[in-house]
């Protein structure tokens, strides 16, 4: 079995890639930073935040292989009256294969329309297969996304 460790405070940042972020990245002044480098940095940061929730430990550290960001809904981009923004916290199950199983929004500020992109993104996340004491393992974790145009 698994136990859900208390959720450590998540750092929400200023990085805006496709309108959403989940970590803080500040490139050095005057540095040329590629989108690939930013994505890699963000993924490592997200992986560290997720590892803090794993208890008891796995045989190998939790490894996030793919972590696409949620896409801000295009119909909200065209709404000139206001731009919805807010945080969306998603609880999700990682199956022994490393694929995400069930996922649901546990809290969200802003519009409900921001929830679906967060859920869709987490469902596309991929992790290295999970083992605990040599046996396949499942995990329940949470992650918070900052959704903004």
Question: How is this structure best described in words?
Answer:
- The protein contains 3 helices and 10 strands, in the order E-E-H-E-E-H-E-E-H-E-E-E-E.
- Residues 1-19 have low confidence and may be disordered.
- The chain has 149 residues and is of the alpha+beta class.
- It is 20% helix and 28% strand.
- The strands form 4 sheets. It has a 4-stranded antiparallel β-sheet.
- The N and C termini lie far apart (40 Å).
- The longest helix is centred in the first third of the chain and has 17 residues, at 35-51.
- The radius of gyration is 16 Å and the shape is globular.
Features:
four-stranded antiparallel beta sheet, disordered N terminus, 149 residues, alpha+beta, two-stranded antiparallel sheet, 20% helix, single chain
Looking across the biggest beta sheet, what order are the strands in?
A: 2-10-5-6
Helix content: 10-25%
The number of helices is 3
What is the subunit arrangement here? single chain
Principal-axes geometry comes out as: globular
Give me the count of strands.
Answer: 10
How much of the polypeptide forms β-strand, as a percent range? 25-35%
Which ranges are low-confidence, i.e. pLDDT below 50, for 5 or more consecutive residues? 1-19
- Provide the structure class: alpha+beta
Q: In this structure, how is the largest beta sheet organized?
A: 4 strands, antiparallel
Q: Determine the mean pLDDT.
A: 80
Question: SSE order, as H and E?
Answer: EEHEEHEEHEEEE
Terminal Cα span: 40 Å
């Amino acid at each position: 079995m698994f136990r859900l460790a208390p959720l450590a405070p998540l750092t929400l940042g200023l990085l805006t890639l496709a309108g959403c972020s989940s970590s803080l990245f500040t490139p050095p002044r005057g540095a040329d930073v590629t989108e690939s480098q930013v994505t890699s940095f963000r993924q490592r940061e997200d992986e560290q935040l997720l590892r803090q929730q794993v208890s008891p430990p796995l045989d190998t550290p939790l490894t996030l292989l793919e972590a696409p960001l949620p896409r801000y809904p295009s119909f909200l981009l065209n709404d000139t009256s206001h731009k919805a923004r807010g945080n969306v916290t998603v609880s999700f199950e990682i199956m022994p294969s490393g694929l995400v199983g069930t996922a649901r929004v546990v809290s969200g500020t802003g519009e409900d329309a921001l929830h679906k992109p967060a859920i869709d993104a987490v469902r596309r996340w991929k992790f290295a297969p999970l083992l605990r004491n040599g046996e396949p393992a499942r995990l329940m974790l949470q992650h918070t996304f900052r959704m903004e145009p």
